[in-house]
């Protein structure tokens, strides 16, 4: 009996010790309260995210390093928001060596021409560039871009590409990111020289696509009748790049609901690929106006699909009012088609169809600007 009581006592003691241990652990704060408060109150990190970050750096006893880093980032043009976004994604930058890590990389981008708030916006979007190797990753990647943009003497296009490129993929490695492979593949498709540089400026993210995605995109463009030796091939890539097949089919169905055949739809898209970038609402407004309001034949839009890319309210209708007056009064020696009027620049349109008609200029200008006067009254 004594042995049994002894066993029970020892068992009770073990159980109490077990729960006492976990109770003490649960009461022990895992977070660094000093650093946590700094993240929330100074860097403006949301509490839920700040808790996660402070747990990662629970042994930090002083705020000297984070404060010094933030002061440095402010000194090169970063706003509080830029720092907040960068730290939210990459908190380790708060403990980076300023002289060995931050200054060389930031200095490199500054030398390229990315400075001030533009630099801050770039780093806040892609903070991983501050922890990537300058010599092994960043410089090799930028040099690849420079070779494509050989005519970019003032680095304007280079900066535009850098700001829009998917650096989270690139900083892995120029080779592993697919950058070099994609360049070689596009060259094999006949996209070289100015075509390649134009595509890079327009669609830098395309150069970081995985192999399969890029090849599927090229096949979609080829299936629409674009050829690799045509300058329109790049525009086709641009138009289809961010367009899902579902959205493409929906826009095709919209055209076909107005009586266009599939072949006519494809021909319009080949002529003006940017049609695919227009919203369905804008396309419908254009189709309604041209086919129903002024009763254009479908063949006119097939030949001049760019007409549907202009604002109906701000360009098409005002110019049509002027065009009607000029044609009705035979104020021109030869007839002009309305599509040719639409493509004129603002200055050329005013000079040819408004200001050149002396006594009638005021009436024509009123007809042209009437929609603006009405909206401002």
Describe the structure using short key phrases.
mainly alpha, 377 residues, disordered C terminus, 22 helices
Describe the structure.
The protein is mostly helical. 67% of the residues lie in helices and 0% in strands. It is built from 22 helices and no strands. α12 runs parallel beside α14, α19 packs antiparallel against α22 and α21 packs across α22. The longest helix has 26 residues. The chain is elongated.
Short description:
With 377 residues, the chain is mainly α.
Averaging pLDDT over every residue, what do you get? 85
In percent, how helical is the residue content? 55-70%
What is the 3D form?
elongated
Query: Which structural category do the helix and sheet elements fall into?
Result: mainly alpha
SSE order, one letter for each helix or strand = HHHHHHHHHHHHHHHHHHHHHH
Gyration radius, rounded: 31 Å
**Distance N terminus to C terminus?**
103 Å
- The total beta strand count reads 0
Total helix count?
A: 22
Strand content: under 5%
């Amino acid at each position: 009996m004594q042995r049994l009581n002894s066993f029970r006592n020892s068992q009770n003691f073990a159980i109490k010790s077990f729960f006492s241990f976990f109770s003490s652990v649960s009461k022990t704060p895992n977070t660094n309260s000093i650093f946590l408060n700094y993240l929330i109150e100074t860097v403006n990190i949301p509490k839920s995210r700040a808790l996660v970050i402070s747990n990662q750096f629970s042994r930090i006893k002083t705020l000297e390093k984070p404060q010094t880093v933030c002061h440095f980032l402010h000194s090169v043009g970063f706003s509080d928001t830029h720092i907040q976004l960068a730290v939210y994604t990459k908190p380790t930058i708060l403990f980076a060596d300023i002289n060995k890590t931050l200054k060389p990389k930031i200095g490199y981008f500054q030398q390229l021409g990315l400075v001030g708030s533009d630099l801050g916006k770039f780093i806040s979007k892609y903070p991983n560039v501050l922890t990537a190797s300058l010599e092994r990753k960043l410089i090799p990647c930028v040099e690849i871009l420079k070779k494509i943009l050989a005519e970019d003497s003032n680095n304007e296009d280079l900066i535009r590409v850098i700001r829009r490129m998917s650096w989270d993929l690139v900083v892995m490695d120029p080779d592993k990111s697919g950058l070099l492979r994609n360049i070689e593949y596009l060259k094999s498709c006949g996209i070289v020289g100015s075509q390649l540089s134009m595509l890079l400026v327009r669609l830098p993210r395309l150069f970081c696509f995985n192999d399969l995605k890029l090849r599927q995109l090229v096949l979609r463009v080829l299936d629409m009748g674009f050829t690799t030796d045509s300058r329109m091939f790049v525009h086709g890539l641009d138009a289809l790049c961010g367009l899902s097949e579902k959205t493409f089919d929906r826009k095709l169905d919209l055209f076909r609901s107005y009586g266009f055949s599939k072949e006519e739809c494809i021909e319009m898209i080949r002529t003006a690929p940017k049609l695919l970038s227009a919203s369905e609402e804008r396309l419908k407004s254009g189709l309604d106006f041209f086919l129903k309001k002024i009763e254009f034949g479908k063949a006119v839009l097939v030949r001049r699909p760019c007409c549907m890319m202009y604002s109906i309210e701000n360009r098409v209708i005002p110019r049509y009012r002027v065009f009607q007056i000029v044609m009705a009064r035979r104020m021109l020696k030869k007839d002009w088609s309305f599509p040719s009027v639409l493509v004129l620049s603002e200055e050329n349109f005013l000079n040819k169809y408004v200001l050149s008609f002396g006594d009638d200029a005021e009436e024509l200008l009123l007809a042209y600007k009437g929609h603006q006067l009405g909206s401002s009254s």
